[in-house]
Amino acid sequence: MVVVCPQLLLNGACAVDGCEYRHNVQICRPCGAICYSAAFYRAHCASQRHKKRLSGAVGAFFCSICQTNVPSGDGWAVHIRGKKHVGLASQQGIDPNVQPEETTTPIGHVHCNECSLAVPQERWTTHVNSRSHGRKSLVASYEAAFEEAGKNKHGIDVTHENDGLDFGIIDVEDASRGVATVLTVRNTVPTSKVVLVNAKFSSTSPSFSVSYDTSSRTLSYSKSLAITVVFRQHHRGRYDDRLELIFEDTTLRQRFVIIRAVKATVGSRADHEALKPKSPYVPRKRTPRTLETDVVPGVPPSTEKAIPYVGKLPHALIPPRMSTALATGQIGRTINYFRNSILPAQLNSETHARYYKTHLWAEEHKMENDLQMYDIVDTKLARHNQYYYLPVPGLAEKRPSVLVGDIILVQPHGSDTGRWFEGHVHVVRRDEVGLCFHVSFRQRSASDLYTVRFKLNRIPLRRQHQALDAAFHPDRLLFPSQVDVQGARPSKSAIQAYVCNKLIVGNEAQLQAVASIASQRAGAPPFVIFGPPGTGKTITMVESIRQVLRLNPRACILVCAPSNSAADLVVSRLAMLGSSQLFRFYAPFRNKDLVPDAILPFTYRNANGHFSVPPIAIVKRYRVIVSTCVSASFAHGIGMPRGHFTHIFVDEAGQATEPEVMIAIKTMADHETNVVLSGDPKQLGPIIRSAVARDLGLEKSYIERLMARPPYDETAGYGVSVVKLVKNFRSHEAILKFPNERFYRGELQPCAESRVTHAYIGCPILANKNLPVFIHSISGKDDRESSSPSFFNIDEASQVKAYVRMLKDDRRFRTTDSDIGIITPYHAQCLKIRTVLRPFAEGIKVGSVEEFQGQERKVIIISTVRSSREFVEYDLKHTLGFVANPRRFNVAVTRAQALLIVVGDPTVLSLDPLWRSFLNYVHGKGGWKGPPPSWDTSTAVDNTGSYDQCVKSSALADMNEFARRMELLTMNGIASDGAAEDDELDVNIDRPWREVE
Q1: Per residue in 547-593, pLDDT tens?
Q2: Per mean pLDDT, which range of 58-72, 757-771, 782-796 is the poorest?
Q3: Nearest CA to 563 among 611, 625, 628, 624?
Q4: What is the second-level CATH architecture of the domain 150-267?
Q5: Residues contacting 216, CB < 8 A, separation 6+
Q6: CATH class for domain 735-935?
Q7: Helix (H) or strand (E) run with residue 953 in it
Q8: Which of 598, 459, 593 is nearest to 584 (CA)?
Q9: Within a 13 Å sphere around the CA of 477, how many CA atoms are in the beta-carbon half?
Q10: What is the pTM of this model?
């Protein structure tokens, strides 16, 4: 194992030419953090831990009740709410909300300087032998060594006009030519004579070079030597190194070293200036909402009465004991409590309802809490007629998602009562909503200020609870077994001549799916169309519907999809049925302007112009009704009889939760109704905000749960209960190859038209002119702004902009805005990229992976954002965030038809085994731009996911070696501050809100 150079540890730098030991280690002097390289050091300096230390934040507080030290920051708030603290306060008759005191060492304890911790005397030996203490002790020793190496010494003064050697932001063209700066070395001791033995950089990177007049390397008194440092680089990004100047005092015949940090940023100064954080990130302190004890009801919109419902929805409020458990915020403990005390011991048809109702309550609790991040303080209302217009930041981004009929609470500024006015949303515009209050609401002046709270619309959740409460729960629909699957695989020949879409005739899997669905016996178990990316699952489902209608004159079909866009697509492909047979149901509050003109003839609107339903007698005449999964409750709500629909089809079923799909099945199906699901469990599932609900299983869709059961084995059940589509009509084979092998056992066949998939072959933008996929390696800096924990990366945003401009300026390979899609996992990066593209490419869609599922573009550019590489405290989960998710990866890389560009930091991405495999694949094909990989791409990937642990282990090995060497020195240890880790990323800030009806 390579270890840190002993000379480096002893002297701060190494004077041995050709030394094979590791040199690229840096220490943060204020924090004592060990950083594996200058890049790690740079990331650490941007962290909250470092900033807290620089601001003089206290490392810990002393609790007089518990007689113990408590970490500062959020640690104190958590401590005083803890059961132990509250219990001791109660025993002593003291208010638990005591003020923190300065740290002290309680009686019977020993204070550890390195760890900033009071340790019981009986545990002292265990503590000093612990890994944590040993690591922090080594940090102190490292810090001292590097502090010494950075000082001017022995009368030699090394100066530069900047602090260190910072080249600043350099234009790409200038960096390609090379930029130089000069260090001045001067001898300030009259009787001294010193020789510059060598000047070198700690790494082997070619970006920095150094030169000087070798004939003037001897420095007598007052003599100076100019050392020229040149930076040359062809690619954007951040580059840093350490210059080591090795001197020898000829009188003492002793060598010593002085080091200087060197860094440069290649990119657009204008982009950096436009995108830089306006203010540093400070974690937002969320204070619990006070109880709304007096709410004045508002005026609901007329859309609430647009549907003639015959029954009432259950309120389905969260049970108090669940609410109490969820309010603790301790996810692991809450999950265990739910599993042991709330959830049924087994999931079966009898417990299905209770199982999923519990999941819904956990999700509702988190959704309500997440809405607090959008609460507004000190805002104004603009009155126009009966409406009060409220500006809502982020409304255009659906952050928050606000629909007509939602409720927003408003309270005059400074009110110290629990009285709030309920405002019903009547109007939704791009940046504001129109509210209607009770007549008692009075605005004294247009300058009045208000506090605003967003409330969760519980109607979709109540509809799901209503469906789950239904007594209908047959095993053949919820838990089908091999016994339920009867008969042989239907023949394709009987239906082949009647297929409407002739493209299906030559596709064996699609034809088999259509034949199987059309010939299903009544009351069969659900049939699954497993449709990997670009294989035509919606086309297959539409053809199946047409064949069912042809073969069964009595057939009535309900078609559902998780989103309006997916439901609209089905309607557009069934338009040939005519408006007398096809009905598209929209929720009443749906904006008419958002509905495609071609679909309007299949809808119904009432006298007020709101979407509604015709009389029930007319509704029963339609042979096909299409709605979203949640809106499908309208059928039960208006009194449609159970069993009216012979078939229920669910498209994109993998994106809906099981309770959402159950709205149609459990309220409208009977023992004869057939269910058909179309989707891909290998792609993204439904968006779940609650970590508790995700862990308990709400993220697993109905189709995914079914496909894990024996009847849905892709081989044994082929043509009887499931068909997997295998012909991909979207992507170039090189783009498809990796996800095909990783997720679909290599069964997908590239069948798309070459005029589309090969559109960029030979394009100058490619790294390999015959490979339409490449990685652009860039070492940038991820940052956060103000109170938002969402990350952005200016370097990557600037590089994405450059590629968009290159594509649009190329007259041979013509590309329009609609041809390009840009995917990034962080909302803040979406905003930054839109900012730099606005002047010349505003029409390009920039969004999250979720926003691109089901879509395709000729060109897809992915910006992965994360570049954090803090050394010892490295955490793969926090660093990669959403990027380290197999399904998110699968969706992202399968959206491209003809060109896929991934912009990111490979050193960080490669810590995830899936990404490392992909990077190896692309690099092996010659699809690489930017600095080369830092690992051997021909080495087999360890899929156990231990790469981040390997980094940590290597660091500890280096530190242990360092500790052994340091025994030779007499040095006082320097204490680490023991600061807490950065606050955990609130991933829900980047998780989009689903707009369900």
Answers
A1: 999 999 999 999 999 999 999 999 999 999 999 999 999 999 999 99
A2: 58-72
A3: 628
A4: Sandwich (2.60)
A5: 223, 225
A6: alpha beta
A7: helix 947-966
A8: 598
A9: 25
A10: 0.83
